# Entry
Amino acid sequence: MSRSSGLYRLQEIDLDSDRLKERLEEIRVSLDDSIEISQLRAGLAENESSMATVRSAAVRAKNDVEDQRLKLQNTERGLYGGSVQNPKELEDLQMESESLKRHLETLEDLYLEVMLEQDEVERAMGASSASLQAAEADQAVLHAELISERENIDGRLANLEAEREVASASVAEQDRKAYENLRDRLGGVAVVVLNGDSCGVCGLTLSASSRQLVGSGDDLIHCIQCGRILYGG
Ligand SMILES: [Zn+2]
# Structure
């Protein structure tokens, strides 16, 4: 095996590992991401709080109506029960009874309004709750898929690590250091396969003698433009 081919093999393993690690990071972010669920939970909590408010308003409105009905009954008892005979008193009771009836109508309208509002809040709460359940179910499915993918990647990374140890054994220490320095500096790609007579990354055309040296693989030949180690393939 030539010096550059050993490094090229190492790089293939390292690039595979890089890709898998990037994917692991994406998975980690996706597993952490519950913005949608949090928003839906917040929406539902808001509905629940509106519901509590409107329910107590409904209880108050109902009590007001019942109190008013009792007042009216009492007045009518006076009016029609025969206990009051005085025409002036009867006239006063009649007026009071009419006034109580008018206010009762207002209170009944208010009660109806509150009941309609309660129906509306109930519908909104049902919709929020259904959306949250659906989102949680979707998330559970997605998480199960991601966790299974993560396990698969962990296994592949362990295999790559073993392959890397084998590949490293056939590379001289100084070559490996040069390779790693280049990978750090040049975006992960230190070794490049020739594209015809040109550098496969920057496209610089090689002289015939450089081309020959790359082909022999005895020395590490760097592209004079981008600095990468050239590999004949
Ligand atoms: Zn180049």
Summary: The two ends are 12 Å apart (CA to CA).
